[in-house]
Specification:
Blueprint (H helix, E strand, L loop, with lengths): L9 H10 L6 H9 L15 H23 L5
Length: 77
Amino acid sequence: MPSKTVSLKAETYERLRRAKGEDESFSDVIDRLLGDDEHPLYGLVGLLDDDEVETVREHSRSFRSDVDDRLRTDPEQ
């Protein structure tokens, strides 16, 4: 497997070393800390049909409107 050399500040190296598990390489810990390239919500794409999406949108609009109304209400009234 090809590798690359990178330069780190001493304090960054120490933070990385402390984050490293006993059986992890530095590459392993960097991969773990960076996480997956895929956005966590991508798995939800396509789960709803168009009617369900519109229902969710309408509930979301209604919720936001209700919150906005509550925030605009003068608590002294």
